[in-house]
């Protein structure tokens, strides 16, 4: 059992609130602050609702106890005073984030780790002029982090290696699944992989190869039935008698032809986006999105419970 | 209830045998033929084992009855005589397939549909010189088709529209999940999407951004927790308050930066493939691949059962 550390969630929109759930359910004390004082009341209700959702899959979760560890405060300085870790999840505006981190850097203990949830702004742009930039990095969640465990640990050129290690370790301790980038890349890992696939999907639909519905089906009835529990390299390894080397060797020629004709960097024309939006909004009207988001989140929790139950691998002597 | 049609499986390696399971479990009579007469005995054992695996998730499946619908025959001509549908799954060799389809075209009833399971060869190359090429097309399964429902219906420029429709309809009738290409594309849909993602994954690992293990984690702990039940367009639609148009609009600038730096067409150097193979073979030795394949297939069946149970969507008035 590790000693609980105090954590500050700075910015408590959807992302910040979900982070508060992640920390509080793991026994950490959480302080919340937002530049908009009215955000606190909304956050408390939403955090309680999220914990209730989680309770269905985690019978040991004590909602009251978790809630008692969360406290809203009136100033940024009060939020970060004495904490070991700060998770900033304010709106995606560069100057606002730069200014927030300069203030946090002055007010937080010297050994606290300062992390941004940003998905779109490089950490090096946010932290360049922060004096303590060696302790700053991006810790990018997938939304919402209390449902989806993946977290991307993204250091800047100035981030100290110990800070990277400690952030990754904290994320494991609170039940997330961290991955680490060795250097900055736009989109980190998840969005690069997601948008490579999405770009080629847009290419296929945009150039008349197939319908959008069929693209969705390729994922739900094909690719993701393996990716839900084994990644793309292991898929290849298990698809060829010679393992991964056999997979790449045997398919080299087919892969070359596909590679040459891929357009994963396809820039979708606005008409295509409009058409796709109209198609999907016909099935799921924009007003129904919150209901479908709730459905999606329930599905994710159920899926994770199933995957955790089914996880045992064959044993073998190596 | 449709009238059962007779089906011929031509070539009964792993893929052909799995097709036989798909057809027989749905009540169709199946004839098996392979150029290697010794393949028949192995096929029968493997089909019985596959049906036993399925039985665990489909209590109504009558294994004996399904087995009784499958019959091996001695000649290609006998296999296709009188059938409504032929599924060819011979080795990936162009000339052998061309010759097979010329023979099948002569021996099968005039209204039978003739399909190839090829993944690597364009249908237009196989069927160009087949007289009845209007009734020929590629019907590409994901291996093994009795576990993974996605099937790609890939017409050539000569395939009659009614043949495309009938093939798609047959696939739905036997419980598969068909998608249709409007024109030929190397890799069809699934491998194009898979290899766009895999190419960018190779780029990220090859250029030192992250480890292969972290790539696998991005899928299993992140992306696939949604893609298992909603495709990439719906993921975007549910990720923005404005729906899909809001997703593309709000992220346009971030997407542009990622798009410009993607290398989904990354040609992995041989040293990288060797290193990745060594890494994964350290966890899963090549000799253990069959055991892990069996584990994977059990996981897929369990996952599909979970997903089918959990499928109900919120209702809403549009």
In brief:
2 copies of one chain form a homodimer. With 318 residues, the first copy, chain A, is α/β, with parallel strands linked by helices.
Question: What Rg of chain A is obtained from the alpha carbons, in whole angstroms?
Answer: 22 Å
- What is the residue-mean pLDDT of chain A, rounded to a whole number? 94
Number of domains of chain A: 2
Number of strands of chain A: 8
CATH architecture group name of the largest domain in chain A: 3-Layer(aba) Sandwich
Largest beta sheet: strand ordering of chain A: 3-2-1-4-5-6-7-8
What fraction strand of chain A? 5-15%
Q: Biggest sheet of chain A, in brief? A: 8 strands, mixed
Identify the CATH class of the largest domain in chain A.
Alpha Beta
Give me the strand/helix succession of chain A.
EHEHHEHEHEHEEHEHHHHHHH
Identify the overall geometry of chain A. globular
| Ends distance of chain A | 32 Å
Tally the helices of chain A: what do you get? 14
**Uncertain ranges of chain A:** none
Helix content class of chain A: 40-55%
Query: What's the CATH H-level homologous superfamily of the largest domain in chain A?
Result: NAD(P)-binding Rossmann-like Domain
Please give the oligomerization state of what you see: homodimer
Q: Largest interface, and how many residues on either side? A: A-B, 114 and 114 residues
CATH topology tier name of the largest domain in chain A: Rossmann fold
The secondary-structure class of chain A comes to alpha/beta
